[in-house]
């Protein structure tokens, strides 16, 4: 760069004339643009200003001529000395300027480092907030996914319940069909058993009829023989009676024709007696004549025997028809079974009958098992219905609980939204009053420097506002108390001398952590020494007078005295305290103007 070295300057001095205006122009140059006191100049602006100043100096040197025709050697030497001084001053100035720029660059680096640190912290905060936002969005997405899954599960549950109901209906229909089939099978089995029993009865009846037929044939032969014998005997008796009647008729006619042979009634009676005797004799096997009545009786017996024989013939014919029918049935059975004789058919029928009875027993056992299974099925169905009712109740309870939870979630969301809105409103209010609170805090001051620095560092926020208010309240209370003490306000003449007003609230106090101490402390129970002192007082007061009621004015005086003693911090004795024998009371009375503790704010 021209003009920075001494040779270049001397070259310029040969070419330029003497500067006009003396050495006033050789004073050190200053930056063209001075930065404001509150803002440091930027490096680029400083570099541009330095370049502009150098260019201006170069132009001024080039425009002036060191050797002019009117100048002398002394003036030239003085000009060179002035130029050398000017260059030295410029060197000193630029050296200082470089050092200042270095310091400024160091400050700039520190500021950049602080800015980077702040940016990193802010990025961390933003990353934490973005992380929380991402977590919240992920939680919302997971919640929506779970809700979708819950809806899908509910749909699947409803479809499953519907399918279960249809399957139950189908199972009930199949059970009804099976029951109908079982009833039809049982009916067919009963009919089969009835047919088999009927066949067995027919076979047994056939056998009995065959036996009866044989017996009847034998009886018929016997009866035929008897009838033939009786007919022969009756015919012989009839011929004999007929002959006797003819003989008797001939004798009667002869006696009727002769008048001399008329008999008396006594004789007729004797004749009747004789006839009776003859009849008895005939019955006993003696032969004699028969009367008309006897003949009629014999004829009627013969007619009855004839009709009996005819009836027997009819019965025999019916039995023969029955036998023919049974023979036809036997032929049919022999054709169907291949059995040709009764002797082989009867054992097979008996075996089949035994098999039928065995099958009947097995069927009865199966029926009993089916009945027990039906009973068990009824019990199981009853249990299924009970479990279905329980499941329905449980589903109703689950749906009810789900609805209640949904309502609670909605209420919680609405409450959270309201709380967020209220919190934002309160936060805006806190931000609005933050300058005023800080101003008041700075004005009233704080005794604890650590607490004050901590509060001022954190600023007025929703978490530190209570600390600010506590410190402000404490300091204002102390200031008011000092003011009242100095100005004699709140001091009244009470009892003896000037004492503090008992209705005045206690100045709030704080512990080492900055928390406010409660004005009312928890009372302590009396110890065994107190009870001993109480017993001593009772023994001492046995000989005293009877106990009298206390006056209201005296009670008021005692309360005021105890309150005054507790305010002043003395160890006065009080009969109203819990340990009343010389023990200090742990309870303090507050006036109407007492303020709430900071814990309730």
TrEMBL record:
Entry coiled-coil feature ranges: 136-191, 395-422
Protein name: ODAD1 central coiled coil region domain-containing protein
Chain intervals with Polar residues compositional bias: 252-266
Signal peptide (from-to): none
Ranges of Basic residues composition bias in the record: 592-601
InterPro entries hit by this protein: ODA-DC/CCD (IPR051876), ODAD1_CC (IPR049258)
Superkingdom as given in the UniProt entry: Eukaryota
Pfam families linked to this entry: ODAD1_CC
Compositionally biased region (Acidic residues): 532-542
Domain ODAD1 central coiled coil region, residue spans: 141-304, 312-455
Keywords: Coiled coil
UniProt source species: Triparma laevis f. longispina
Region (Disordered): 1-43, 252-294, 521-548, 561-601
